[in-house]
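Hello forum,

I keep getting stuck at the same step: I have a sequence, I want structure tokens, and every attempt I make locally crashes halfway through. Rather than fight my setup again tonight, could one of you with a working pipeline run this one for me? It's a single chain of 152 residues.
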Amino acid sequence: MSGKYFEELEVGQVMLHSRTRTVTDADNLLFCGLTLNTQPLHLDAEFAKQTEFGKPIVNGIYTFGLVIGMTVQDLTEGTIVANLGYEKVLHPAPVFAGDTLRVETEVLEKRPSESKKERGIVKLKHTGRKQTGEVVVEVERSVMFLMKPKVE
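Reply #2:
Ran it on my machine without issues. Output:
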């Protein structure tokens, strides 16, 4: 497992995730199709030309999901019990096909679970940026992590 256990995370710790991803038109079209999102701002180049963006923008929920996914290998792979909630999801700038995203995670809070002694709850803040450094998504989430197994 490459994820972190509860004990390996410290409040104030910041991780720059190694995985990056260039978003494509196909990503956006497929996600919109799978989620039945018919918003022309995501799908119709002629419509999008008339907006302040001048071209289609990538679906924000896809961007949000991609940013969370890009943290899995370094952070939660095999050590997560559950996502407990997402808070303060912000999209301060659009993502376009061709943008390359990277993610940084900060540990905001942590505490042992009151009901499950072998688990702990961690509040994380994920910040997704495109190649220019511009922030495109910020999200705080609460995650239940496993504690390290006891060695006997």
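The longest helix spans residues 25-34. If your local run keeps crashing, start a new thread with the error log.
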